[in-house]
Each structure stands twice: as C-alpha cells, then as structure tokens.
C-alpha cells in the first residue's frame, strides 16, 4: 500500500514563528488598540476625510491613478502639489479637518511609492508600490464604482506591526459600509506584500458568491513606519525595513 | 602649441585647469603661469577673496599670491577690487569683476536652494528590485485572492453581518419549509376546531402566519396586526428587491407564492369535508 500523502510544505507552513503575533484573546493588545491613535476612529468619533496628493509634477499615469483612487475611497479629495513642502501642508490639513494624508510618489512616469499618514499626529507608513493597474488595464472589469461606502476586508495581518498597519487601512474608510452598494475593498497580506483589490460582489446562492473586479489594483510593501506625522529627519521610527537584517531568511515575514 | 599640464583640449576650445585662472580658457592673456602680473577671484566657504600676483614676488613661490578678503556687500567689494587693481591692465580688472559677479550669483542661489525642500535621490538597486518583483509574483500566486475574498464574504454572510437584505439562505429556507408544513397542519387543525364560520379573512390571516414562520423564528406564532403589516411590507420589499436586482433566484418568492396558494386550497377543502362529516 502506498504511504499516506504528505502535506506539502509551503512557505506559509514553514514560516518562522514571529513572537509578535497577535493572539486574539490578548488583553494587552486589546488595551493598546483601545488607546492608540485610531481609537477615535473605531469609537466612531471621527469621520475619515482623506487628502490624496502626489510628488511634484505628476505625469499622466499618476494623475489618473489618483483620480481612480479617490473614487474608490469615499470622502477623499485630490490636490496637486505645486512644489509645496510637506511640512507646511500638514498643519494646513490638520486645520481643515483632514484625518489622513496619502502621498503618491512618482518615478519615471509611474507611481512607485505611497506615504500614508494619519493626521492628527498619527503614524506614518511609507510603502513601496508596485504593479499598479489602472481601471482600463484590468481585464473583465465591471463598470465604475458607485458612491456607496464599500466594505473592507483585511486579510492575514497577524503580527503587532501587521495589526497597526491594518488599522491604518481600516481608518481610511467610513465605519458603516452600505451593503446596498455591494462593493468591497480588500487588503490582503501575503508574505509581506499587501495586495489591494476592489470588487463588486453578488451572492448567487448561499454557498456561492461571484465577484467582479472594478477599480484599480496595486501592491504595497511596507518600508517604514513612523510614530508621528511625516518627518524624515527627526521622526521616531517604529519600524524600518533593514535589508541586511530582515531579508536573510526566506521564511521570515514581518507583517 | 606648447605643452601645459593644466591644458585640456576639446573639439572647439582649450581649457585651463589651473585654479588661479581667471577665465578658465587656455589663452596667453589668461594663463596665470604665463603672466607675471595676474589677479583672480576665488571663494572659500561663501566668502570671496581677491588673489594677486606681482613680478616682485616671482622668486618666492610661498608668498606669490597675495590674498585680500572682499566685503560682503556687492558694491563695496567691487570698489575694493577697483582700488586694489588700480593701475592694472583693463582686461584683468574687467574679468575679475565679471568673475566676482558670477560667484556671488551662484552663492545666492545655493543659499536659496538650501532653504527649499531638497529632493534626495535614492538609487534603486537592480538586484533587489528584481528579487522583490519575483517574490511579489510568487506571493500573488500563493495568495489566491479571489478565493480568499469569496470565502471571507461567505463567512460574513453566515455570520449575519448583512442582516436581512438577502432573502435566501436556501438551506435554512428548506428546513423552515419542512418545519412550517408540520406546524401549519397542526395549526390549522387547532383553529378549525375553534371557529368554522369564518370566511376568507381568517384564512388570509392564517396563511400570513405560516409565511411569517418561514422567515422569522419558528417559535413565534402570535398573530398581531403589527406583524402582519411588517410581513406584508417585507413581502413587498423582498419582491421589489428581487425585481430590481433581477439576479436573485426566482425560486424564493415564486416558491413562496406557490406555497401561499397551496395553503389556501388546503383549508378550503377541509371545512367542506368536516361539515359533511358533521
């Protein structure tokens, strides 16, 4: 008789156990999350208002990407940065009641970086953005996203760092999704790459759901997480990706 | 035509690399080595100095170049140049002042730029970029995004986060139907014993009850007017919802309608049999 079939080893199976993995029942984590910068959002005290901007002189793709991103995220505004310093933009944003700032960095006419900053002095995350697909480049896509508030799915954010990043993403969207719209924005973390997708779903039956992709898609890789708002010189970094230390093992992930 | 170690030739011009050169070109008139009386402007750390060389000091290389600090004020510095180079050839005086102007202009620009935001260019490393792209592709394949999203959505449906919007669950519907069959028979028997005189209104009420029991809890069998109204509204809402979306399975409402009709017939026939028996 043949021996029983073994479970194949995948990188996810063999993942080096991360000591900062969040246990669902951990009280300390729950307490931390109740008192960190996103607590006002999760207690429904603040409504998210997002400002999307780019680096200087954005080229066509970046501009279109910004527009599409602003249709995906409700209550977001795109402003062009004509050479304004970020340090001066931030106090203005806080004065006008924005809760989040997204800066899309551009290189050689394609967007390649994203800085996401929670405004009233919240953490700043700097991502490397890759494989950006605009709406017209997605095959078999649906029509335009509507104005309904989408649902949010956050997959696979297991460690403490992952949790905080996940909460940052969740705080971009208003808290109560409109199920009539049947739209869902997904942030899926796999091996430290965060894939963003935007779909429309329809329940064909109890056990079957169909999804249709609308909206842009991109992948992010976290480069650094700073405690305060964006400040490259004096900021206190909570986490930086250090290539020599962190990229040594193929099975070790941080998010 | 002679050799000079400071000379750089390009296609159109000859340049002089000497740091004391006034114009930067390799000419007889602007070579500091060829002329024994020469002057230049050089700047160090943002301050401009006037360097002068005279014939008398040609024997002392260490003291050859005399240096004068110029005023920070542009006009005053020009006057200083003039008074220092008072009897010097026009060419040198003119070129000194030109050079001084240019230097001050670029110093101003430097100071302005340092105040503005400075863009730091971080070079990409090709090997690392390629490695990350490959890993990203593999992660994408491993992620199986569509499946994951579908699973998550079904989970949410099961945990009732969507509430009453969707009018299947069909499994629960089937179970409910079976239960409702058993219940409605017992119900109708009980009620028939109580009043037999009733007309359509009573039957209507009963039918509604049984319909209610399909979709709400099986346990609640109270017949209040509120519930009836709610039920009717629900019926309308669900019917309209299904019509507007057009994609929900027709089985649900159509089935229910058929059920509804069947129940009516059952009750109509029963009284007749009962009266006959009686």
Automatic annotation (TrEMBL), chain A:
Its main location: nucleus. It comes from the Eukaryota. One of its GO terms (cellular component) is nucleolus. Signal peptide: none annotated. Pfam families: Brix (PF04427). Keywords: Ribosome biogenesis, rRNA processing. It is found in: Nucleus, Nucleolus. InterPro entries: Brix, IMP4/RPF1. The keyword RNA-binding does not apply. GO terms for biological process: maturation of 5.8S rRNA; maturation of LSU-rRNA. One of its GO terms (molecular function) is rRNA primary transcript binding. Residues 48-231 form the Brix domain. May be required for ribosome biogenesis. This is Ribosome production factor 1. It comes from Alca torda (Razorbill).
From TrEMBL, chain B:
Residues 182-217, 224-234 have a biased composition (Acidic residues). InterPro entries: Mak16, Ribosomal_eL28/Mak16. It is found in: Nucleus, Nucleolus. Residues 5-106 form the Ribosomal eL28/Mak16 domain. Its main location: nucleus. Keywords: Nucleus. One of its GO terms (biological process) is maturation of LSU-rRNA. Residues 176-278 are annotated as: Disordered. GO terms for cellular component: nucleolus; preribosome, large subunit precursor. The keyword Endoplasmic reticulum does not apply. Residues 244-259 have a biased composition (Basic residues). Belongs to the MAK16 family. This is MAK16 protein. It comes from Alca torda (Razorbill).
């Amino acid at each position: 008789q043949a021996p029983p079939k073994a479970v194949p080893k995948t990188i996810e199976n063999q993942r080096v156990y991360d000591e900062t993995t969040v246990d669902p029942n951990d009280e300390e984590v729950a307490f931390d999350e109740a008192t960190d910068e996103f607590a006002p959002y999760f207690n429904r005290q603040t409504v998210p208002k997002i400002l999307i901007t780019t680096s200087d002189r954005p080229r066509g793709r970046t501009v279109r990407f910004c527009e599409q991103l602003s249709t995906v995220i409700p209550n977001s505004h795109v402003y062009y940065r004509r050479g304004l310093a970020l340090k001066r933009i931030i106090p203005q944003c806080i004065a006008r009641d924005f809760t989040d700032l997204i800066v899309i960095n551009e290189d050689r006419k394609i967007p390649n970086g994203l800085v996401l900053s929670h405004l009233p002095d919240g953490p700043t995350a700097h991502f490397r953005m890759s494989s950006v697909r605009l709406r017209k480049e997605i095959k078999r896509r649906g029509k335009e996203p509507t104005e309904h508030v989408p649902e949010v799915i956050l997959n696979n954010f297991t460690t403490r760092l992952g949790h905080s990043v996940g909460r940052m993403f969740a705080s971009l969207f208003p808290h109560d999704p409109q199920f009539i719209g049947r739209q869902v924005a997904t942030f899926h973390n796999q091996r430290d790459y965060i894939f963003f997708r935007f779909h429309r779903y329809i329940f064909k039956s109890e056990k079957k759901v169909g999804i249709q992709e609308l909206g842009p898609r991109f992948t992010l890789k976290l480069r650094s997480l700073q405690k305060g708002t964006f400040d490259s010189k004096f900021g206190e970094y909570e986490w930086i990706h250090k290539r020599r230390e962190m990229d040594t093992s193929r099975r070790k992930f941080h998010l | 035509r002679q050799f000079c170690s400071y000379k750089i030739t390009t296609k159109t011009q000859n340049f002089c690399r000497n740091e004391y050169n006034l114009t930067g070109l390799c000419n007889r008139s602007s070579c500091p080595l060829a002329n024994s009386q020469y002057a230049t402007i050089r700047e160090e750390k943002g301050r401009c100095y006037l360097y002068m060389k005279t014939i008398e000091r040609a024997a002392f290389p260490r003291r050859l170049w005399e240096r004068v600090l110029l005023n920070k004020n542009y006009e005053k510095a020009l006057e200083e140049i003039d008074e220092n180079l008072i009897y010097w050839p026009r060419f040198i005086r003119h070129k000194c002042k030109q050079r001084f102007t240019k230097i001050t202009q670029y110093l101003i620009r430097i100071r302005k730029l340092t105040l503005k935001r400075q863009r730091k260019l971080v070079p990409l490393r090709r090997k690392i970029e390629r490695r990350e792209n490959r890993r990203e592709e593999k992660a994408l394949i491993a992620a199986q995004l569509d499946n994951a999203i579908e699973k998550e959505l079904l989970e949410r449906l099961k945990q009732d986060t969507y509430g009453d919007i969707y009018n299947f669950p069909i499994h629960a519907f089937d179970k409910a139907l079976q239960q409702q069959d058993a219940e409605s028979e017992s119900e109708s028997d009980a009620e028939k014993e109580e009043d037999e005189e009733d007309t359509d209104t009573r039957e209507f009420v009963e039918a509604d009850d049984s319909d209610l029991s399909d979709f709400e809890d099986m346990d609640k069998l109270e017949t209040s007017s509120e519930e009836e109204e709610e039920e009717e509204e629900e019926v309308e809402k669900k019917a309209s919802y299904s019509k507007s979306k057009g994609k929900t399975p027709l089985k649900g409402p159509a089935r229910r309608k058929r059920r509804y009709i069947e129940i009516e017939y059952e009750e109509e026939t029963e009284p007749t049999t009962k009266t006959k028996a009686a």
